[in-house]
Amino acid sequence: MSHRTPQQIADHVREGMFANDRASKALGMQVLEVTPGRAVLTMTVREDMVNGHDICHGGLIATLADSAFAFACNSYNELTVASGFSIDLIAPARLGDMLTATCVEISKAGRTGVYDTEVRNQRGERIAVFRGRSYTAKGRPAVPEAHG
């Protein structure tokens, strides 16, 4: 095991996970910050994300929040997956809006964790709140260590 700081581990996870995260990349998400137990991601609402009511599809807002959750709960480099989540959509997001999802760890005990994500637009208006529940597979890294 390496002797890296918790932040160095979080940076390693950020780089390694995002490199292989085809879904988040396809939606144009950017990872602004990953610290132990916390992550901040952004996504701009594009034309192909708008539904028949001319607002961002709620499932895509959930995907942004879920991606922030994934980076936060894997930030310790232990393979962690979602065991469930709930989301409340509070206000619509519209074409061109820049959404920021900030996920913070609420609880981490044994193999389970609880994480809250808030999604806001570029005016700071709350768009959604998301609570994710995580399950950690002990002994498996989220991102393998580089050798050589």
Average pLDDT figure: 95
- What kind of sheet is the major sheet? 6 strands, antiparallel
Written as H for each helix and E for each strand, in order along the chain, the element string is HHEEHEEEE
Strand order of the largest sheet: 1-2-4-5-6-3
Q: End-to-end distance, in Å?
A: 15 Å
Strand content: 35-45%
What does this entry look like structurally?
Helix content is 24%, strand content 37%. The protein is of the alpha+beta class and 148 residues long. The protein has helices at residues 6-20, 22-26, 58-73, and strands at 30-35, 38-44, 80-89, 98-109, 112-120, 126-136. The model has no long low-confidence stretch (mean pLDDT 95). It has a single domain (6-136), classed as Thiol Ester Dehydrase, Chain A, CATH 3.10.129. The chain has three helices and six strands; from the N terminus they run H-H-E-E-H-E-E-E-E. It has a six-stranded antiparallel β-sheet. It starts with 5 loop residues before the first helix and ends in a 12-residue tail after the last strand. The longest helix has 16 residues, at 58-73.
Which terms summarize this structure?
148 residues; alpha+beta; six-stranded antiparallel beta sheet; 6 strands
Helices and strands, with pairings:
Elements: H1 6-20, H2 22-26, E1 30-35, E2 38-44, H3 58-73, E3 80-89, E4 98-109, E5 112-120, E6 126-136
